[in-house]
Amino acid sequence: MLQSMRIIGGKPLNGEITISGAKNLALPALVAALLSDSEIILRNVPKLADINSLLGLLEFLGCDINYLDDHSISLKTDKIKSTEAPYDFVRKMRASILVLGPLVSRFKKASVSLPGGCAIGARGVDLHIKALELMGAQISIENGYIKAQAEKGLFGCDITFPIVTVTGTENALMAAVLAKGTTRVTNAAMEPEVIAFCNLLNKMGAKIAGHGTPIITIEGVESLRGTKFEIIPDRIETGTYAIAAALTNGKLLLKNCVYDDLFTFFEALQSAGIACEKDGLNNVLVYRKEGEIRPVDIQTAPYPGFPTDLQAQYSVLMSICSGTATVTENIFENRFMHVPELNRMGANIAIHGKTVVITAVKKLFGAQVMATDLRASVSLILAGLVADGETVVNRIYHLDRGYENIDKKLTECGANIERFSV
Ligand code: EPZ
């Protein structure tokens, strides 16, 4: 049964929103269970469709999974029964490619379906494969599957990524932690989720240094132990709700979030006239300083640059600013699918290659719109919150992949939003 979201716009959001655990850390953290035969317990795991999809794949591989409470999961992989990740799992959730590294490094073989296409871009996995080949895996592509063998195990080596790849870095890390010798990953991703992921692997007994810098060094060890680990807050969810507060001219206290994980993003918001104030250790208070939203150009970039996962949401904010702003997407080649839908709501956004020119309009108008990918769909929700009248966002399964209880969290701050089946 497909579901849609109906929003009646125009209500300022006021109150508090508690941020959930980071999807893009929880996913590799769950996969890390494949690296050890002892139990790992993850806390603050967000309840999301993507998490469920990955748990389905891990169960298929033979992982013992138990929910200890709504957000705590115990995983144990002492009885792996398969090293194959079938197409049916991988097509639903492309981060399933992360099982490649640990399966080869611990079990010396893997057969993982290629993820196939994605709405926001080609999103190849050539760099994941190259990293494993450099470490000694024999890899062939057969009938849409990556077939990997490493009878003698993997060997540490120097890996240089030509472009920053988040899950490519994470796959290389999971291959290297059990390899013989030392691996050095150059041009490694520095996202907070990658740093936290290295902290998890080190808690499991890995010997990783340099995480958070472009060069990460991993000294291979014989085996990894179990551990308990808390997932860090989701910075993309944090940024999404910060924009909701700015858009609706409300005031939101975002709880359990990390200001410094979004430093560049909050700087852009401050320049646009939005107050983003640290409140205690891990809260941020967001509201408009004066009435208007000033135009501020941004370009997406790997961390610590402006996050690509907040580009669509930021474009909604600029669509009602007091001038003209440009947003340039440097990471993915097709991440403007929200633009035609926003223009149907009265926005005035023109696409010029990898840049959009946003000429502000006085207001947006409610409309029937279609979600296409995770972050585009949440940008349509944001537009609905500020638009005049009723907006219906269809195909919101995209939304449930990455935002836990979004309708509940927004309703509690005064939004008029309801989910319904179509
Ligand atoms: C991660 O995707 C995130 N997903 C994405 O979040 C995020 O947008 C992206 O990093 C960039 O920050 C998870 O962490 C689960 P990349 P990932 O490899 O690792 C190209 C969301 O909305 N590339 O850093 O798949 C690729 O096509 C999602 O939560 C290759 O060409 O992204 C892209 O243009 C969306 N070959 C660029 O690199 C490769 O082998 C960066 O991609 C790998 C990547």
What's the number of structural domains?
2
Structural category is: alpha/beta
The 3D shape can be described as elongated
What is the CATH architecture assignment of the largest domain? Alpha-beta prism
- Small-molecule components bound: ligand EPZ
Question: Count of helical segments?
Answer: 14
> How large a portion of the residues is in β-strands, by DSSP E?
25-35%
| Strand segment count | 24
Write out the CATH superfamily name of the largest domain: Enolpyruvate transferase domain
Radius of gyration: 22 Å
CATH class of the largest domain: Alpha Beta
- What order do the strands of the largest sheet run in, or round the barrel if closed? 22-23-1-24
The biggest beta sheet, please?
Answer: 4 strands, mixed
User: Could you name the CATH topology of the largest domain?
Assistant: UDP-n-acetylglucosamine1-carboxyvinyl-transferase, Chain
- Enumerate the spans where pLDDT stays under 50 for 5 or more consecutive residues: none
Helix content: 25-40%
Question: Mean pLDDT, rounded to whole units?
Answer: 96
